[in-house]
Each structure stands twice: as structure tokens, then as C-alpha cells.
Amino acid sequence: MPAKRNAMKSTPQHANIANVPLARIVQLVQRNEANNRPALEQATGLGRTAARQRIDTALRLGLIEESGSGKSTGGRTPRLLRFRSGAALLALCAISQTYAVVGISDLDGTIIDRRRLDNSIFTDPDIALNRMVDAISDMTHDRDLPLWAVGVGVTGIIDFATGTVISPPVMPEWHDVNVRSPLESRLHAPVWVDNDVNLLAVEAQRTLTNENTDNLVYLKIGQGIGAGLIVNGAIHRGADGAAGDIGHVAVPGSNVPCRCGKTGCLEAVAAGWGMTAQAVESSDDSPYLQQCIADHGEPTLADLFSPAGAADHVVGRILRTSADAIGETLSSIINLLNPSLVVIGGEGITIGEAYLARLRECVYRRSLPPTTRNLRIVATTETVTDNLEGAANLIRRQLFGDELPNWIDDGTPVDYMLASHAR
Ligand SMILES: [Zn+2]
């Protein structure tokens, strides 16, 4: 078993109280909620001297910098302050059965470089992790900036406290693989690992600024099916990291065999491999599916979700069955969690309006009115692929959220990690 202890704790710990005001100043500047000394004094409630000391410390640590002068409001023009997003780099990895991508970003999460690796590496975790480290080292090598943290998104259940993958149904080779330790020891920076759908959920929370995202369900339809849950603004991972792992929830009345060994599982009825298997089985009745098979062999999920697919009567039936089954499961989640927003993301596919309408109709029919009064169900406009942005978002939440008062004393998260190892 990998050690639960980590240089940077994965769950919020008791913050170093003495550093809270300093951390708060950095957070306010980073979030662009205050950008000059008077505004920081007001926002923190600190006196002028106490605020000045902390601002000077943040400047000395290189976490913030001066950036010209603002507008005068009567007295002297205040010097503007901004977060130094270019002070260090973040490394990002995303791995699933269909992609292996690495990248780097600045501290604001803006992706600077992104590389796609041969996704066949997913069959050997050791090789995959080594290739990812090599690619990150290559990307950071010529940039004269320190690497401060690494974020990894993996398909499957993740023990967030240890960074270990637990029994992923589509990548059995990754069962019990600790992702954090090898990356941390080779890249010399703290590492966080999370489920890929959780990262999609936090990214939706960041980007959907016109929506109420404090209670959000992100449902990803791809080869498998999974949900990321945001409850009261935070990711809900559950006791074992398995919250939202809905691919093998039973669909009432179905006895379709599933790859997990059971029958009637949601993903066997309503997601990638299950839907394409149904398409092959009923292709005799569909000129469209016969054409797909003639063109490139077994129909893909993209074939089924394409406009031409949706117009075919056999494919249409498969899509309706999928939308109904997902709608049923979603209505249970909605009755349980009462989210205000459900985001449907298609991995490599675009969710069509007819599919979404059918799913919505099923949810509203099956859910109690109080839980759906303020509910919105939307589909992402872009197809979901790798989500390095979500990995960057996760790290930034860790580094500049509850963890900041703990590491700020040591100057950088890496120094804090090394000091923690030595302590
Ligand atoms: Zn199953």
C-alpha cells in the first residue's frame, strides 16, 4: 500500500494559522478581487502596517508583482498589484483508453505546450508514466522556470489521498497502480491525481460563469459513462473515490450482458461499446449501419451520434434507448443531490438536440418538481477529449486554496514538499 502521507496533503488540513493573512492577500490578488494596497487592507481587515508587511512578503516571495498605477480616488494613485502567473510551471497529464496527453501551463492554468503521446502506452502503466515524465521533462527543459506541481486525470476510480488508481474497468492493467509516487520522485514536485470526470466537472464550474455551478452534476458519455459531482462548490469524491461511478448501475428491465460480468448495466445499454454492439447486431435492418461497416468496419460511437446516424431509424432507436436509460439514472441522482445544473459531455461525440430533449423529458417525468424547479440540463458544445485544463484547475485549487497557508512559509510548494520530507 502506498503511504497516505504526502508532502502536500490531499485533503484540507488545519492551515498554518499565522500565514492565513498572507495567504489571503495572495488569493485576493490571484483571483483579481483586490489589486492595490488600500483594497487589500479593506478586504482583509488588516491595519495598514500589518497589510504592508504581508504585501511586502508576497512581493519578496515573487508570488505577486507591481504592475503600474491605478486610478486615483482622491489621494495618491495606488500602485497596482497582480499575481505572477509566470513565476513557475504546472505539468498536466491526462490518460484514458483513447488518449494519453501531457502538457504544461502557467500558474493561471493557461496551457503553454501540449503533446499527444501514442495512446497504446495505456496498456503498460510503467511505460506510460515514464513516457509522460520524459515528455514533461522535455517541455520544461528549455524554459528557465521551476515546476511547482503536477496534475493527472485518469479514467477510473482514484484514491485521491494516495494518488492510486482503483480497478478501472477499461484499463485493468492500472488496477492498484500508484501514479503519484513515480511522478513525484522523478519530477520533484507535488502531484495530485483525480478521476477524469471530476476534472471535467471542476472545469465546467470554472468556465460556465453564467450558470449556478455550486451544485453540479457532470455526466460524461463515452466508451463508458461516469459522473462528476460538485456539492456546495467542492468535488464530492465519496469515502473511496467512487462517487459518480455510475457505469454499472442497473437499468430496470435490461438483461444485456456487461463487460463487468453482470447484466443490464447502464454502460452496456447506454454508452460506447454497448451501443456499438447493439448497432452491429441490428445492422441488417439499417442501410446506414451497413454503409458504416463497409466503410470502416464496426460502427463507432461517432457514427451513431452523427446527424446521419440520428436520422436512421435503427440508430434512432438505439439513441432513444440510451437517452431513456441515462435519463432514468440521472433522475435518481437529481432526486438525491438536487443540483441546479447538469452538464452532459460526449467524449469524442457531439450530443445532438434530439438526444438531449429525450433525456430531459425522461428526467422531468421521473423527478419530483421541487428538485427540478431550478434545474438546467445542458450539453457541452465541444466534444470532450483530454482535459488538461481541468488538471490545471485542480492543482490551482490545491496550491492556492486551503494549502496556501501551509506552503507559503517555505516560499514554493516544492520547497515545502522537500522540507516536509526532511521533517
Ligand atoms: Zn457492468
UniProtKB/TrEMBL annotation:
Gene3D superfamilies tied to this protein: 3.30.420.40, Winged helix-like DNA-binding domain superfamily/Winged helix DNA-binding domain
**Which InterPro entries does this entry report, sorted A to Z?**
ATPase_NBD, ROK, ROK_cs, WH-like_DNA-bd_sf
Organism superkingdom: Bacteria
One Pfam entry name = ROK
Q: Which family does it belong to?
A: Belongs to the ROK (NagC/XylR) family.
Q: What name has this protein been given in UniProt?
A: ROK family protein
What is the native source organism of this protein?
Bifidobacterium catulorum
